[in-house]
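Input structure tokens:
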């Protein structure tokens, strides 16, 4: 399965959801270690350990973006967690 999703910080997602705030302000940085992703329909999922490692590596390479959209391949969804088996690559929708 392949998904195109927005990458955000997991900590910010939890805070935003509990306070009814918009998640668009949850852009990750090169120091972020725990990530979540949001589909275009608004559903959000936590990344598993492998996905977090791949997202952290990607963030170190590209730096902070106001909106980071990625294509995730090799995906298995289990509850509220996405298991990333294969790749995490920037999408053409990513803003600088």
């Amino acid at each position: 399965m392949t998904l195109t999703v927005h990458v955000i910080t997991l900590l910010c997602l939890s805070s935003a959801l509990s306070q009814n705030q918009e998640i668009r302000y949850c852009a990750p940085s090169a120091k972020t270690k725990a990530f979540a992703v949001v589909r275009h329909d608004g559903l959000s999922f936590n990344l598993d350990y492998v996905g977090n490692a791949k997202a952290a590596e990607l963030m170190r390479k590209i730096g902070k973006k106001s909106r980071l959209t990625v294509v995730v391949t090799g995906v298995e969804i289990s509850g509220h967690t996405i298991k990333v088996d294969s790749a995490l690559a920037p999408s053409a929708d990513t803003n600088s």
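The first helix runs from residue 10 to 18. Residues 2-90 form one domain.
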